[in-house]
Specification:
This protein is α+β, with helices and mostly antiparallel strands. It is built from 8 helices and 11 strands. It has a 4-stranded antiparallel sheet with strand order 1-8-3-6. A 4-stranded antiparallel sheet has the order 2-7-4-5. Strand 10 and strand 11 form a beta hairpin. Helix 5 packs across helix 6 and helix 6 packs across helix 7. The C terminus is likely disordered.
């Protein structure tokens, strides 16, 4: 974006830290802010009637979320929570809509973000239909690795199971299997991926 438009946005956003596990918003709430991730990780998820979590997305530095409720003025359709200690910048509804009215570049970027989200949703639906539990678990591990920019992932089995949409027992069994195959090493809550070609894991 042009420097003057960057300055206009910078003047309207405010920092807000979130601790690991802290909720950012809940489904059904009124959406008054757009959120921009500076550092850390955020999960977007739903909760079924029987209390099980299903992760819809994992977001990291440079990602934004919460725009849907600002555009259609409907309540939040999902929940958001910090996976790690996270710094987020917030942009209010009025300021966000005013920026859209005055910045064609911002509108184009927003369309690209929404298009990317739709593609990711399509992939998720395809994965739920065709992928097995192992592939879903590995995909989540790969996403966490990419966002952290390190082969180490610090997460407990309950959180990992929720992100992958699997039972904790299934997650434990699959992690043991991956460790026996020499793909990962577990040290407490830390999982270290050993494969040189991470994409190769998905093909096994």
């Amino acid at each position: 974006m042009p420097p003057e438009e960057q300055q206009a946005i910078a003047a309207e956003v405010y920092p807000r830290p979130f601790q690991k596990g802290e909720p950012i918003f809940w489904a059904g709430e009124r959406g008054d802010f757009l959120y921009l991730v500076q550092s850390g990780l955020v999960k977007i998820f739903t909760i079924s009637r029987d209390g099980k979590e299903k992760a819809l997305a994992i977001l990291g530095s440079g990602d934004c979320f919460g725009e849907m409720a600002l555009l259609d003025e409907e309540p939040r359709s999902a929940n958001a929570a910090a996976i790690s200690d996270t710094m987020i910048w917030t942009l209010g509804r009025r300021e966000f809509l005013e920026l859209l009215r005055t910045s064609h570049d911002l509108v184009l970027k927003l369309f690209r973000i929404l298009s990317s989200r739709l593609r990711e949703t399509n992939k998720m639906v395809e994965a739920l239909i065709y992928s097995d539990s192992r592939q879903r678990l590995v995909q989540i591990l790969l996403e966490l690795v990419q966002y952290n920019q390190t082969r180490e992932v610090k997460i407990n089995q309950t959180e990992l199971a929720a992100l992958a949409g699997l039972a904790r027992e299934t997650t434990s069994r699959l992690l043991k299997q991956l460790e026996e195959e020499g793909i990962i090493v577990r040290r407490g809550k830390t999982i270290l991926l050993l494969e040189n070609d991470l994409c190769q894991i998905m093909e096994n």
